[in-house]
Amino acid sequence: MTAATVFWLIAVIAFVVLEAVTTALVSVWFAVGGVAALAVSFFTDSLPVQGAVFAVVSAIALGVMVPAMAKRRRQNQPPVTNGSPLTIGKQGYVLADIRPGYLGRVHVDGLDWQARADILMPKGAPCKVTDVDGAVLIVCPVTADTAAV
């Protein structure tokens, strides 16, 4: 194993570790370029050739992946991770009793949420989201009046 091969192996490991630590896609293209340069190092000891392969493959990886990720980001909306106003008006059911002044849990829109209500709502009772307070849904019981609205 030549010194250049060891260098590229260490570089690839460093880029992969950096990517794993940041999780922000800052070095994955360099890891791809490093793998290509590592492969070339088995066939030639020329550092300029290896460096050129590293630079070209890294640039190609960057040029291919960034537009693809931008397109994917536009297509997929991030998941709702807080008490989004999008849940207002949705119906669900109580997972854990909700007592006035205390938080309970509800299942709304396919997710488990913390919830608060002005009246006692037992487990299993149907509910409707009337408002949102941060990551807590404000719910009321589903009655004939609230089910239609």
Automatic annotation (TrEMBL):
First and last residue of the signal peptide: none
Domain NfeD-like C-terminal span(s) in chain numbering: 88-139
Source organism superkingdom: Bacteria
Keywords: Membrane, Transmembrane, Transmembrane helix
Main subcellular location of this protein, as a coarse class: membrane
Membrane topology, record value: Multi-pass membrane protein
Subcellular location: Membrane
InterPro entries cross-referenced by the UniProt entry: Membrane_assoc_protease (IPR052165), NA-bd_OB-fold (IPR012340), NfeD-like_C (IPR002810)
Transmembrane segments: 7-32, 52-70
GO terms for cellular component: plasma membrane
PANTHER family: INNER MEMBRANE PROTEIN YBBJ
Protein name, entry field: NfeD family protein
